[in-house]
Amino acid sequence: MNTSPKPDPDDDVHLIVATDEEVTVENYPENWIAFVLFWALALIVFLQFFTRYILNDSLSWTEEIARYGLMWLAFIGGAVVTRKKTHIAVELLGNLMKPSRLRTFLFATVDIVTLAFLALLAWFSVAIVERMHSQTMTVFDLPMSYVYAGVSFGCFLMLFRQLVTVWSHARQRWQRADDYVKQIPAD
């Protein structure tokens, strides 16, 4: 006869424990622009698929507009990740260093170099917009500078967001490592 007590359901050990995070909706212009562009692209690509494979009569403008929309989405999405400080980066060296002047100098240099690169990118984007005004789109009789104006807009948004980041890091004297990566101790 088995006389062992039944385990209490509260004593169950779970290997995976999932908790729901609180969802916050951020109201930034680049978020809404990227949201609208993404769903417009989804609609245009679905329209391209539907007309090509279901109706066997493809719309000529959908492929070109989808390509240009993807360019806009990439650069405006770049502004979103610049604001969130989630660009791809190699952070190992700064995270291994103890707080010191050298670490502060490293973080400041990374911020300033990123700011300079984005300023150069924005400047070149304006030059490209000016040069592309004489060329027209393939399907529509509109200048290509309209397409590259969206790219330039995204470059300037990234530059503005990086400027805000540099300003906030400079006010903190580049002392907070958790701005760059949330360090979790490994046991």
Average per-residue pLDDT, rounded, comes to 86
> pLDDT below 50 for ≥5 consecutive residues: which ranges?
183-187
By secondary-structure content and strand pairing, the structural class works out as mainly alpha
Report the major sheet. Answer: none
Helix run count:
5
Helix content: 55-70%
Number of strands: 0
The dominant shape is flat
Note the quaternary state here: single chain
Kindly provide the radius of gyration, computed on alpha-carbon positions and rounded to a whole number of angstroms.
Answer: 25 Å
Tell me the strand percentage band: under 5%
What is the first-to-last residue Cα distance?
44 Å
Order of helices and strands: HHHHH
Please name the defining characteristics of this protein.
mainly alpha; flat; 187 residues; 5 helices
What does this protein look like?
With 187 residues, this protein is mainly alpha-helical. Helix 1 (29-54) packs antiparallel against helix 2 and helix 2 (61-84) packs parallel to helix 5 (145-171). It has 5 helices and no strands. The chain has helices at 29-54, 61-84, 92-96, 101-131, 145-171. The longest helix has 31 residues, at 101-131.
